[in-house]
């Protein structure tokens, strides 16, 4: 393997910019022509250009300017960025990154050389704390640009026409305490994967050792494996199964991640093309809303917390041969996996650590951005926080015991990609510093910048504005502006301590299973989870009130400095309020969420009449149907529903649960195991089940996104007041007269 990323194969990669589109302007075409000129093939030209660029960059970031000069410089460079933003293409994206890096590096240089001459210990305490948080954010920004500058855009590779050459595959479905109903769908869909039957074996790995699971597996004819202990949790469960199975490849699915029938045929071709490929990962897609989407009512309208990773970051990692194993929806080649001792057990993020070990051994890892499975998201905010704590603790453990910057086997790009993944989970303390930094001045009069307010604005605003519009362009349809701050604000307090403690002592903490398939019968406000957000909100409200008082009653107040800190405090109030809105849990009464899909269907009534219709949505327990206007079928009516795929038809007994206005809801009626398996193959297992909704959101508009976050903040304040009033009311008993 070379130290530079491998060249894309023209037969299997799409080198057009799928996120930004083809260059449609004259300037864009000129830039691309310059970038593709033969001149750049000369090594001397490359070295000379790099040296010149470095010298110019050093000059740009270090030359001292007064207030007016800096303002003019910032206005010109930001104007260039706005013009580039109108031009499509990857080259112009790189140009925007360059401008952003210049503005941010210039700010950091000025920050370190001109603003840290603190005059007392109070200024120094708060000031150096803010500087360290800014340096952390700057490092993450730079490595993030490196990581996502040129997503690889890997495409499927066809399998050999002779299916006798296709390898044997063991499908592992580890489970511990999840309900059988949740696991069933994954097992049925795994059984329907299109692959030669003599080379596909499905195994349920039951660490819960439950008799109903054993019986279910025996009835449908899939493997069932247990062990005598639960050492090393999921990783240990998989490693134990590896000892008694022999497939050349292992496909792993969390027990709530339902694979499509095309999974192996879409993914396996890359293992034929690249003999050194040890692992291929596909996206994690969820057909139920996570707590943010559910509680904020943003499901299908705003990208969720994980979409950036699977939409952009993993694809960027792939260029540098640093794609991560994510624990599910992936294929691993058995021989390399056994060479590294199986799934890693040293940390609680066994998946990413396993990929790191494979890369250290010289094996390749890959990412294919085609959704080939979908699962259940965490239902409650507390469960979501617990899952993120485990991820954060595990990445801190890896950073401590197997740091990617150290040790053998990794190339420079791989080291940076892994490093950024670990740095990301250290955001807890920096985020809390940003949420409280202006209070140092409002409460204590501490000057965290030894500079005038106007100079701070002239340097800081370009840094923030460039980063905002550049990330908006890169992340586009996978992360909207300002939402990252909401996600981090919700989690910061909870991951800060586990991350720091795990970095100090990697043995602290244990694996916790994320609960799936539950219900929330009544809406409630999670006061326990919300306590840190409430404290932050109150502190920032008090700080803002102090600022107003000083502007009103102190004639010698530093007006500009006060205004800047109050604006910053206002933004922190918005973020704290939005965090409170997430803590207001909405009801979730369905154990099995419904998936929106328009599938051809037909209804057969007991009198023999047949109505052609289509589905609105489906779940393993029922369907929503669009029927012809005027059709009235009473609730409780028994009928048969047909679902179709090509020439295949599945017929399922059902009972009407509601009807009216061209819609009909039906519940399946006592389906046999064979019928449940057939239903899964016609719904969840369809090859196109999840592809149509992936990456199809509208492009981010930063101002609109800011407005959306502000609206969520207002909603959080309103919900807080409502719940305070509810808590203050005297409780009544059911037998009160």
TrEMBL record:
EC number annotated for this UniProt entry: 2.4.1.12
Domain Glycosyltransferase 2-like: 171-340
One of the record's GO molecular function terms: cellulose synthase (UDP-forming) activity
EC category: transferase
Subcellular location: Cell inner membrane
Function comment: Catalytic subunit of cellulose synthase. It polymerizes uridine 5'-diphosphate glucose to cellulose.
NCBIfam families: CelA, PRK11498.1
Name assigned to this protein: Cellulose synthase catalytic subunit [UDP-forming]
